[in-house]
Amino acid sequence: MNRLLFLFSLLLSSNLQAADSPPLKKVFISQFVEHPALNETTKGIVDILKKNYGDKIDIRVESAQANAALAQQIATKFVNQQPDIVVGVATIAAQSFAKAASLNKTKLVFSTVTDPIKAGLGQCIEKPGNNISGVSNFVPLEPQIELFLKLQPNLKKLGIIYNPGELNSIADIQKLEAFLPKMGLVLVKQAVLKTADVPQAATKLASLVDAIFISSDNTALSALQSIVKAAQLLKLPVYVTDTDAVKLGAMAALGANQYQVGAQTGEIIIRLLNGEESGSIPIQFPETKELYLNLDAASKANISIPEDILKSATKIYQRDAK
Question: Does the pLDDT at position 65 exceed 70?
């Protein structure tokens, strides 16, 4: 009898403790597509949340596999499950949550969105409103092009592959078209609608240009190795904004540390979970720019990188280094 009373008391105590424990915080993340830059962004978000909450948080991550319709399905499912915060990693994933956030059905934090205002993810940088805040991965394009010209002084025609359905890519192209002529450069555009279109587009574009530049376009980045392959056949360099893509064969990148962008995003999520008003936190931008170089890619393009640029690099990839 005493044993039964003891077990009953133990069970009652356990249930009371469970009742007294605060519910798990829920953060659901939709990542538009898997490629190194976005993977690092999501990793940064998850790491900072786990560091602060340990096992007191429920984090779920799903990929839309570069499919806008699937991104919307994920968004609808997540909103219906009523987490504390939804997170959209990349523009299309974030846009999929925007309407629900504006209707006060969820709180949205975006990450790695090039132009959040044009993408409809905020009324202004200082106070985005509509239950939205987040971190852009935008870094100015002019310094990147200046770097490419230092690496490749004979550069005249710069090719770019982009998906016209990605507003982040359209924003980049508009900026490039505004200032490239002043630098004596011509922008040659090649549109793609899906990842499967990229290899053929890259082969065609490589025959028309002196170098290929992939900025924030997720469709192109998810098939970057096919672009590198087409460029290397003609001894052309591939430049990127995403530093994490350099290890895949791009020659150079001057851009944000995507893991740090994710960590910044995680800090905003924590502020909201701690009670700050959704929509009142200013949109943030990368805190630093980093230069990544790939010496193997430079060798294949017959490009010698100046010593001063080598010394300023944050990271250098060289497979044959001893």
Answer: yes
